[in-house]
Amino acid sequence: MKTPGCAASTHSLPTDGFPNLARFFAPRSVALLGATEDLSKFGGRCMRQIINFGFAGDLYPINPKRDEVFGHRCFPSVAALPQTPDHIGIVLPAQAVAAALEQCAERGVPYATVFSSGFSETGTEEGRCLQQRIVEIARAAGIRLMGPNCNGVINFVDAFALTSTSTINGPRRPAGDIGIVSQSGGAGQINVMWRAHQLGLGISYEVSCGNAADIDLLDYAAFMVETPSTKVVLILAEHLVDGDKLRALARRAAELDKPLVMVKAGRTEVGSRAAAAHTGAVTGNDAVCGAALAQLGVLRVDDYRDLYETAMLLRRGRRPAGRRAAATSISGGNLVLLADLGAATGIEWPTYSADTQARLRELLPGFGAASNPTDLTSAAIGQAGTFAAATAAVLDDAAVDLLIPVVTNVGSADIRALAELSASSAKPVAFLWIGRASGDSDLTPESLVAAGHAVYRDAMPCVKAIRAAMRYHEFRQRLAVPPVQRPDGIDAAAARALLAQASGALSEHQSKALLRCYGLPTTRDSLALDAEISVDAPEMRVGILRDLSFGAVMTISLGGIYAERLKEEAFRLPPFGPDEVLDALRDLRAFGLLERAHGRPASDITALTECIARMSWLAVDLQDLISELEVNSLRVLPQGRGVRIIDARVIPSASICGVQFAKSNCNTCDKV
Amino acid sequence: MKTPGCAASTHSLPTDGFPNLARFFAPRSVALLGATEDLSKFGGRCMRQIINFGFAGDLYPINPKRDEVFGHRCFPSVAALPQTPDHIGIVLPAQAVAAALEQCAERGVPYATVFSSGFSETGTEEGRCLQQRIVEIARAAGIRLMGPNCNGVINFVDAFALTSTSTINGPRRPAGDIGIVSQSGGAGQINVMWRAHQLGLGISYEVSCGNAADIDLLDYAAFMVETPSTKVVLILAEHLVDGDKLRALARRAAELDKPLVMVKAGRTEVGSRAAAAHTGAVTGNDAVCGAALAQLGVLRVDDYRDLYETAMLLRRGRRPAGRRAAATSISGGNLVLLADLGAATGIEWPTYSADTQARLRELLPGFGAASNPTDLTSAAIGQAGTFAAATAAVLDDAAVDLLIPVVTNVGSADIRALAELSASSAKPVAFLWIGRASGDSDLTPESLVAAGHAVYRDAMPCVKAIRAAMRYHEFRQRLAVPPVQRPDGIDAAAARALLAQASGALSEHQSKALLRCYGLPTTRDSLALDAEISVDAPEMRVGILRDLSFGAVMTISLGGIYAERLKEEAFRLPPFGPDEVLDALRDLRAFGLLERAHGRPASDITALTECIARMSWLAVDLQDLISELEVNSLRVLPQGRGVRIIDARVIPSASICGVQFAKSNCNTCDKV
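Above: the input entities. Below: the structure tokens describing the complete assembly.
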């Protein structure tokens, strides 16, 4: 796409980190441009919510036609305000926003939220230019901007809401431990915040940032990650512009043990089109995005509901040390399904120790050898405390990393005893509670959730949340190993020199010379093969492509006719070591082909992983100089004999678009 | 497994159909053996539920220690009853059940429900023999038996409940249109019935049949399918014993347009073990089961919750004519996700006609070209009727088979107008309602469901239910084509004669002779290949295996090293035509390999599908004589040149277990 009429944006973020949004989220003084008492208008609803939500600072409605709004003195302009507000909300027609921002610039307002729509999301030239204009004004003046086309911010910690949403009507809910960052107002505020509240969960901050023209999703998430109240951050992303920024955020979140859970739109072409129509978002390659999120430890989920269901377990901070779960119940039918769904998801059900078995037999006379999941049978009903005591025995077993008490309709005493077990255990506990408590109408799943427990109503979301918690722990364990080392024998300067001489796409000969600068084994000529490279060795294909969001991405797939038909590709963000390559190869179902088959000798997988890991450093070093690289094919020889690059093709970035490829915030002029 | 000490069961069902369970579900008189007033006991809770649920017939508690139970005259024995009850419930220790059934046999009781546990589910020799004993007594006396180890039956249509469950406490809910058949009491009564009630759905019948030693899951389902009230039947199966019976049930259900939706346990080994421990169920090969259910039009789902979520849309009887859906909303964020999840599930989003576009522009001045899903934007808020009118325009479009109004928090007038649209439309409508109605606290998702609408709270269950409805319609359309014809040139008598002469496994030569009786093209010798059969033609592997539940099953996979590694196999129940083979081939990702690749000529797919369809008749004709057949490999030649069977191996049933293989209800002595 090309956008005549407006030059590419020149947004540059502070390279050392993320913006400081403390006063954006918790301003001492707030102004609302377009305030009114008319509740049929956005400015009226927004004004009312600031007041009703309990804002304790100075509040300045701005409207030249009024003297007072809801009992607050009203001002004719930004210039007329008695002090510079920390944060200003703008509820004006799109065409009037630029002038309003210029007033804010003169006054030195640090943060502005532009609710108005009519910008990039319209898909029109006019809308795009209007949006670029307001961003330019803000950048020039140092104003940080939320929106446009957004529904504001809600801060439960400091009782500040700048939004029109009716989801916060009524008494203000206590601040919780889950942060929410969304582009959409409806999805962030209704699908996630309101629904999470209905389940008994608590929210710390919610942001609906619309087009995210300046401050973006990751900036808000970075703020939340640093706050002590927030334990998990949920992100509803229609687009992810900056892969490096996501990497920095994910690294920091992992450091602080604060999981990021994400729904990312644009899985399908029709979804991408819908996102473009909604917030002007342009989505990149979804398979690349999925692989990158997994590599960075961001937990991607499918539906909005999955966000808070996943957070419910993660917010407790107790991580499963491994994949071994135990479940107890008096409902055998529920255990049958849980066993199945759990095993299908990768949860293991270990056998209990002899000690645990003995404890169970003591509690439940006549009980045989306990399998896991454990049907306590009706023997555990009626006898007060037996359910919880048997469950405690199972939880104590050293083979068990996580516990799932499965509760259908049981007495409230049993449920309270299980809740105590969950509260006092260092291991994570996820309730699967299908029915209700008898004998106590106040004891509900919602009340347990509000008390900090993780309570699921159905087996599928329960096992999905557990698997996410296990994946997250495994990710954090990988972080503990020393970072990937740069291999020896790389001559990056020679590679750069080679590229500097090139005009247009490199020849096979030149491409191979470039690869040899990184110590990669190439044949001299793709047609004249060494005798030792038999034509029927499985072939690999490795490439570097440029993703709209993530920049240089490595792609790994099998070559040859069979694998080509399977259309399987693994993606990884460079740089990485041989272990990560092995992990990527395991994403390919056809990977088994590389291993010993039909009497053929095993392939040299060690050499293959080392070769691709080495290539990942080329991708990092030369990412600004290369727009595309393809190695097709990479022949894998029998064990101990290495690999050979048969053919390669490199396209320097200059030859694609006539300019050196550089990261840019403008989605419209990257042809790649 | 072998079971010494008890002979194989000889259960034979009426071949012409299913048992008549009218008086089982709606008895005129009921007795309860083991009745008491003690509510801590099963017999007390069960007695109370019969009364509270409003049973209007004659009720006879039986207990030699009491004169009266809850105001009903109590009798000392079955013999002492003033009349023979239609249905008797038995709440006695396992060891006392056989004697009780003998009393029932003397009295001529037609239906008995054995609640007691301590039978096959214990996994002990004693339990298995006890169960076999009570089945034998019942069979000899013509008593039809529910259970043992079960929690009975609930009939909302006729106000009869024979169960201990607390899920029906309180006023009796009105009869609905969904039937539920479960082995587990907890899963059927709490996970499905009670939870469905919470959502506003209505149930016609619920059965929790435990070990299902006599009347089985399919018998209950067959009864429900025939009742006018029931529109959908939900089945929670831990095992499926009889594939032929399932075939008959599925055929009848499809005839009556009453979808069957099923959760089937035993997906994984650990799930199979849990099922065995719960109700003594032995599960067959899960992949075979999945393929068979799909072929028979039974909608398999993953979680218990999916059962009623799927039924919510299906019960309305309006089928989507195709896969083309439309969605409207004022929440763009929700449409982005719905577009993605829908497209990923196979739902199509057609472009609207010029007429529809014009109607939308008329209703929403300034609205551009409407994409689908359709963001009506905030222009549709506030103006009463605009949301519904725009949605009606979309629903009228000939390109639209199904409508999804997406509602977040909107006014009650809008929701009522959309509900009217849904009620009056001949096309199916599935609401996706995330939030709540403003201005009317009685208007809830539950109230709409109770009024007959399909209302989903999240996008994922919504698109899953829609896809199930689309799949079901496609299945019914396939039924409309003429049934599969037996091909010419089959000499089944010769094949039988050949098998009669065999002792042990057939040689390659004999196996091929058998295949030629069915007109199948074989080479003379697997080693001496015709010159025209090049070694690099993709190879197929076709087999007949014997499944515990479904009997003879055809298995189709690619041969050769590559496909072998992919471990892909398609299963189909014989007989079938070439179209079904093509469908099965498309289940294999590697199928593309058979099509033109790398300049090779295209393979003869027509000959391949005809060959495998022909083999499916062999599977049907000889299923009692063959325990296993493997064709490896079947070479597919270039188009127009047919296929060749290179090697084959047939194992007659006699050589496997020493006896002619015959269907049997005993799960314990089939080694296959």
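Note for the figure: Chain A touches chain B through 79 residues (CB under 8 Å).
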